[in-house]
Design a protein that fits this description.
With about 160 residues, the protein is α+β, with helices and mostly antiparallel strands. The chain folds into 2 domains: about 30 residues; about 130 residues, Sulfite Oxidase, Chain A, domain 2 (Alpha-Beta Complex). About 30% of the residues lie in helices and about 30% in strands. The strands form 2 sheets. A 5-stranded mixed beta sheet has the order 2-1-10-5-6. A hairpin with a 5-residue loop joins β1 and β2. The longest helix is centred in the N-terminal third of the chain and has 25 residues. The protein is globular, with a radius of gyration of 18 Å.
């Protein structure tokens, strides 16, 4: 005969683990959720992001050592591809850190949603699988606290607002 307390505790543990680790499992699949104003939501994986026009550059960051080579789709290109309309975009990370930035601040080549760093796919433990990066070394305008604060890693969600 089975112990009913054990069964209850086992189920409670499973529910707890799913609740706590489900964002990690979703991120391991590399899905980026993009929500538009019209209630359209897209779930994009690495392959979908890599099919869009790619931007490449080398830069240094305060979070990495030495110059890194990054590649990915520019945020402006992604939003244009999806037909996004709005004033701002809210970006959220795996740990629920979020920022809001005006869409008007987006440029053709910056920032990019990095999918590869030094030609390798980025695991969650190394700021991946997606990281919003600016070409910090190319212009002093990218070397500000505002820009550094927008450099969100472990990116899981983009939401167009306003």
């Amino acid at each position: 005969m089975s112990d009913p307390n054990f069964s209850y505790l086992s189920r409670a543990l499973v529910v707890f683990l799913i609740f706590v680790f489900s964002p990690v499992f979703a991120q391991d699949k590399g899905l980026l959720q993009v929500s538009l104003l019209k209630s359209d939501t897209f779930y994009l994986n690495l392959e979908a992001l890599d099919m869009l026009e790619q931007t490449h550059f080398k830069t240094t960051t305060m979070w990495t050592s030495g110059k890194i080579q990054v590649s990915g789709v520019s945020l402006k290109t992604l939003l244009k591809h999806l037909g996004a309309r709005g004033e701002s975009i809210e970006l959220t990370a795996l740990d629920n850190y979020s920022i809001v930035m005006p869409i008007a601040d987006l440029e053709d080549g910056a920032p990019i949603i990095v999918t590869h760093m030094n030609r390798e796919i980025m695991p969650v433990r190394k700021n991946g699988p997606y990281w919003l990066v600016f070409p910090y070394d190319s212009d002093p305008k990218y070397q500000t606290e505002v820009t550094y604060g927008r450099s969100i890693w472990q990116l899981t969600e983009l939401r167009v607002v306003n």
